[in-house]
Specification:
Structural class: mainly alpha
Order of helices and strands: HHHEHHE
Largest sheet: 2 strands, antiparallel
Helix content: 40-55%
Number of domains: 1
Shape: globular
Number of helices: 5
Number of strands: 2
Distance between the termini: 38 Å
Length: about 110
């Protein structure tokens, strides 16, 4: 059964052995498919809401610790597919230490 977070991720998002090898070889990997179209729209909607509700003294490029207030940020970052990808890189001892939203005007 799909959850709301499952619908944020593109069904084609995979961190395979080949993807991992490319990451190790190049030091990075660009995913052609990460968020679904609907997931991208939802994340944009959520970020816009956060920006609209922020205190006027907080600049839009200084939203720190969003995962501690915004449930959707925490749920996306701790999605099993995301955690599996991170575990392959650094091992099973994972700590979500900080999040920083950098929202700059176009």
């Amino acid at each position: 059964m799909d959850t709301a977070m499952d619908n944020l991720l593109d069904k084609r998002f995979v961190f395979s052995k080949q993807t991992h090898a490319e990451y190790v070889r190049n030091g990075y990997h660009i995913f052609p498919h990460f968020l679904s179209d609907g997931g991208l729209e939802e994340c944009c909607r959520q970020v816009d809401r956060m920006l609209d509700q922020r205190h006027p003294e907080i600049p839009p490029d200084a939203i720190i610790g969003a995962h501690m207030i915004e449930t959707w940020v925490w749920e996306l970052a701790t999605h099993p597919k995301i955690l599996d990808m991170i575990e392959r890189q650094i091992g099973p001892d994972i700590t979500f230490w900080s999040s920083h939203l950098i929202a700059k005007a176009p």
